[in-house]
Write a structure and sequence with these properties.
TetR/AcrR family transcriptional regulator; elongated; mainly alpha; 209 residues; single chain
């Protein structure tokens, strides 16, 4: 026998899940984790609270999915640059130049969600802050690994401090994100990127590229 409960469980969703998820990405990106309420999310996503919980789980589960979607659609340019360019210097230079573009596109929230979403977060959401911090540190470790590979290949001097140089790049990227949120335009961030690369160590042969 088909009961009313069975009909409700079998009823198809009345919204497009991917569209709703994209709207959630933008909501968290604009406001951060803590400041984004369930009411904000349901309004932005165009769904009811029961539909949100049924489709995505609670706010934290939705945020985890949002971060994964953000990385897939917007945040993977650093890893791509490091993977596709032949040296760490060229990969980092490309990543910084692309950050200047990505963080200021007119049809998106400013800056980087992974960098800004945990600002002003309370102790109650410490797990979220730790989660995002680990993602940022993972990027820095990836940069450090590319730098160490260049040192081993003779592309950088043997005494190059890979950890410090990677931390410097991370600080520049995080600063560019915040400046974008403060209103800096692409050209301003591109100038910062070029200045950062001017501080890059010379290659083992003495060249800068």
């Amino acid at each position: 026998m088909v009961t009313k409960e069975t009909k409700q469980r079998g009823r198809p969703r009345s919204f497009d899940r991917e569209t709703a998820l994209e709207r959630a990405v933008r909501s968290f990106w604009e406001q951060g984790y803590e400041a984004t309420s369930i009411a904000d999310l349901t309004r932005a996503m165009g769904i009811s609270a029961p539909s949100l919980y049924a489709a995505f789980g609670d706010k934290r589960a939705l945020f985890d999915e949002v971060v994964a979607e953000y990385g897939r659609l917007y945040g993977g340019f650093i890893s791509r640059a490091l993977a596709e360019e032949p040296t760490a210097r060229r990969g980092v230079g490309r990543a910084l130049r692309e950050a200047a573009v990505e963080y200021t596109l007119p049809d998106r929230p400013r800056g980087c969600l992974v960098i800004s979403a945990a600002l002003n977060i309370s102790p109650a959401s410490a797990e979220v802050a730790d989660f995002l911090r680990e993602m940022r540190l993972s990027n820095i470790r990836e940069i450090a690994s590319a730098i160490r590979a260049d040192i081993a290949a003779g592309e950088l001097p043997a005494d190059t401090d890979a950890g410090a140089l990677a931390g410097f790049v991370g600080a520049v990227i995080q600063g560019m994100s915040q400046q974008a949120r403060d209103g800096a335009e692409e050209a301003e961030l591109a100038s910062i990127a070029e200045l950062a690369m001017a501080a890059w160590p010379r290659t083992a042969s003495g060249a800068t590229a």
